[in-house]
Specification:
There is one protein chain. The chain is an alpha+beta fold. It has two domains: 1-30, no CATH class; 31-42 and 90-202, 3-Layer(aba) Sandwich (Aminopeptidase). The protein has five helices and eleven strands, in the order βββββαααβββαβαββ. It has helices at residues 48-55, 58-61, 73-90, 135-149, 165-174; strands spanning 2-6, 17-20, 23-27, 32-34, 38-41, 95-99, 105-112, 121-126, 155-160, 177-182, 193-199. The strands form three sheets. It has a five-stranded antiparallel β-sheet with strand order 4-5-6-7-8, sandwiched between helices. A three-stranded antiparallel β-sheet has the order 1-3-2, with no helix packed on it. A three-stranded antiparallel β-sheet has the order 9-11-10. A hairpin with an 8-residue loop joins β7 (105-112) and β8 (121-126). It is globular and about 40 Å long. The structure holds coenzyme A. The site of coenzyme A (COA) has 18 residues, from β8, α4 and α5. Coenzyme A (COA) binds next to β8, α4 and α5.
Length: 205
């Protein structure tokens, strides 16, 4: 939803406002959404320990970097700062996902589109203790609806290393179809990833 306000010097406080003539457009967007078993929300500093533990897990990291090396705590800090920075720069980003019943952090899922990305991606990473419960698919389904309804995109992609069978299974459960291979700005040119995609017209809620 976009609201036009008369310019009252508000734009500085409302970071995501854009100025036009004597009015200010403020895009109001949910920072928290829910699904049956999960809450998807913006990040707090108290998420960091669980995030760092997730990124230090070799099972989680197997396909997330070139080397598959577990992330050191400092690198996890930088990585989370990048995720939070994406929220600041774009007004949306990967959500911190917590269980509704327990409040436990289970991973990160959501929309993002870093510079040079081939489109708006919904991505997913869960702590390995929470694999096999359908949480990634549930959170991604909610995130794709969010991308179509609140971000207004016509198409959502997911970028997956060909060997990452569990992630491909998530994309397939969501109804995404294989849409070729792409290279990414942070990877060597010969390192291609699979692009899965779904259009708004094909999306079944
Ligand atoms: C990719 C990743 C998120 C997939 O996690 P996942 O747990 O396999 O996927 P889901 O959460 O959708 O769970 C699906 C499984 O839960 C099972 N399940 C159990 N209870 C369920 C329920 N109530 N509802 C739905 N599924 C349920 C499904 O049957 C399925 O089992 P299967 O794997 O034996 O077929 C996870 O492996 C991960 O975080 N990997 C590391 C990071 C990564 O590589 N991310 C992707 C980058 S492209």
């Amino acid at each position: 939803m976009t609201v036009w306000l008369r310019k009252l010097g508000l734009h500085a406080a409302l970071g995501r406002a854009t100025r036009r003539a004597d009015t200010v457009a403020v895009t109001l967007r949910s920072m928290i959404v829910e699904s049956e078993r999960l809450i998807l929300r913006e990040w707090t500093s108290s998420d960091f320990d669980a995030y760092a533990a997730m990124m230090a897990d070799p099972r989680v990291m197997e396909f997330l970097s070139l080397t598959g090396t577990p992330m050191k705590r400092f690198d996890a800090w930088r990585s989370l700062a990048g995720t939070v920075g994406h929220w600041g720069l774009r007004g949306f980003g990967l959500f911190a996902v917590v269980e509704r019943q327990t409040g436990t952090f289970v991973g990160q899922v959501g929309p993002w589109q870093p510079e040079g990305w081939p489109g708006l991606e919904v991505g997913w990473t869960l702590r390995s203790e929470f694999w096999g419960r359908g949480y990634a698919t549930e959170a991604a389904r909610r995130s794709i609806s969010y991308a179509f309804d609140e971000l207004g995109v016509a198409r959502v992609i997911s970028l997956i290393t060909p060997e990452n069978a569990r992630s491909i299974a998530v994309a397939q459960r969501l109804g995404e179809r294989l849409d070729g291979e792409v290279s990414l700005p942070h990877l060597p040119a010969d390192r291609r990833v699979l692009q899965y995609a779904i259009e708004r017209s094909a999306w079944r809620r």
